[in-house]
What we know:
Blueprint: E1 2-4, H1 20-23, E2 29-33, E3 40-41, E4 55-57, E5 62-65, E6 79-81, E7 86-89, E8 103-105, E9 110-113, E10 127-129, E11 134-137, E12 151-153, E13 158-161, E14 175-177, E15 182-185, E16 199-201, E17 206-209, E18 223-225, E19 230-233, E20 247-249, E21 254-257, E22 271-273, E23 278-281, E24 295-297, E25 302-305, E26 319-321, E27 326-329, E28 343-345, E29 350-353, E30 367-369, E31 374-377, E32 391-393, E33 398-401, E34 415-417, E35 422-426, E36 439-441, E37 446-448, E38 460-461
Parallel strand pairs: 1-2, 2-4, 3-5, 4-6, 5-7, 6-8, 7-9, 8-10, 9-11, 10-12, 11-13, 12-14, 13-15, 14-16, 15-17, 16-18, 17-19, 18-20, 19-21, 20-22, 21-23, 22-24, 23-25, 24-26, 25-27, 26-28, 27-29, 28-30, 29-31, 30-32, 31-33, 32-34, 33-35, 34-36, 35-37, 36-38
Amino acid sequence: MGRFQPSWAPSATWKSWVSAAALGRLAKLSWLYLDDNQLSGPIPPELGALTNLEGLSLNHNELSGPIPAELGALTNLSLLGLDYNELNGSIPVELGGLSNLSWLHLRGNELSGPIPAELGALSHLAELGLSGNELSGPIPAELGALSNLERLYLHGNQLSGPIPAELGGLAHLLWLYLHDNQLSGPIPPQLGALANLEELILYGNQLSGPIPAELGALTHLQAMYLHDNQLGGPIPVELGGLSNLQHLRLAGNQLSGPIPAELGGLANLVWLHLDNNQLNGAIPPELGRPTNLRRLQLNQNQLSGAIPAGLGDLSKLEELSLSNNELSGPIPPELGALSNLQQLWLHFNQLTGPIPGELGSLTDLTWLGLHFNQLSGPIPPELGRLSNLERLSLSSNELSGPIPPELGALADLSWLHLSNNQLSGSIPAELGDLTNLEWLLLAENQLSGCIPGGLGEMPVNDLDSLGLPPCN
C-alpha cells in the first residue's frame, strides 16, 4: 500500500483519532506521517500491529497518555517521531527492540522516569532526541554502544549523576547536547576522542573539576558551551588548537589563572564568553587577532593591566564587555575604530585618563558604560554623534568641565548617568530635547545655574538634590 496520506484537505485537522482500529488493520502500510494535525488523545496501541511500518511520525500534535509498549513490535521501523506532544509516563523499554531504528525523537513531551538502558541496543540509531521532558536518573552508559549515533539530544531534563565516559566511544557523533540538567562530576577526558564532534553543549549543569586538555583534540568542533557549571582550574592552552571553533562559552564557572594567549589563534572565533570566573593577569594582546570576533565578554573576573590597543583591530566586534575587573591605564583611542560596536562596558575598573573623543565614531553604539573608574578631563562633545545611544553612564569618575550641549542630540537616550564627578557650569537646555529620557542622574557635581524646563518630569531623576531653581 506504500505511504499513507490523508485524503482530506491540508487545512483540515483531526480533533480525535478517527477509525484508529481501522488503521491497525492496514497490514501493508509502510509509512504513516500525521504531523501537525492537532491530533489528541492517546496513541492507539493498535498501531503496534502494523509490522511492515518503516516510518511513524506523529510530531507536533496534542497526543497524551503513555507511549504504547506495543510500538516495540514494529521491528521494521527506521523512524519514530513523537516530538512535541503531551505524552507522559516512562519510555517503554520495548523500544530497545526496534533493531532497525535510525531516528528516535521523543522531544518536547512530559515523559518521566529513567532513560532505558535498552536503548543502547539500537545499533543503527543516528539520532536520539529525548530533550525537553522530565526524565531523571543517570545517563545510561549503554548509550556508548550506539556506534552509528550522530546526534544525541538529552538536554532540558532532570538527569543527574556523571557524564558516562563511554560516550567517548561514539566515533560518529557530531552533536552532544546535555545542557540544562543536573549532571555532576567531571567532564570525562574520553570526550576528547570524539574526532568528528562539531558541537559540545554541556552548560547549565553542576559539572566540576578541570576542563580536560583532551578537548583540544576536537579539531572539527565549532561550538563549546560549558558555561554555568562549577568547573575550576585554568583554561587549557590546548583549546587554542581548535581551529574551527566559533563559539567558546566558559562563563559562570570557577576558572582561574590567566587567559591563554593561544586563544588568539582561533581565527574563526565569533563569541568568546569568559565572564564571571576568577581569571587573572593581563588581557592577552593576541585577542585582537580573531578578526571574525563579534562578542568579547571578559567581565566579572580579576583581570588587571591595560586594555590592549590591539582590540581596536576587531572590526566586526559588536560587544566588548570588560567591566568588573581590575583594569588600569587609559581607554585606548583605537577602540574608536570598532565601527560595528553596539555595547561597550568598561565600568567598575581602575581606568584613568580622559575619555577618548574617538569613541564618538561608534555610531552603532547603544550602551556605553564607563562608570566607577578614575577617568578625568572633560566629557567629549563627540559623544553627541552617537545617534543610536540608549544608555550613557559616566558616573563615579573624576570628570570635570561642563556637560556638553551636544548630548542633547542623542534622541534615543533613555539613561544619562553623570553623577558623582566634578562637572561644573550650567545644565544645557538641550537636554530638555531628550524626549525618551527616563533616568537622569546629575547629583554630586558642581553644577550651577537653573534646571531647564521638562527635565523635572523624567520618571527617575535626582534634580531636587541639586538645590537649583527651575529656569524661567
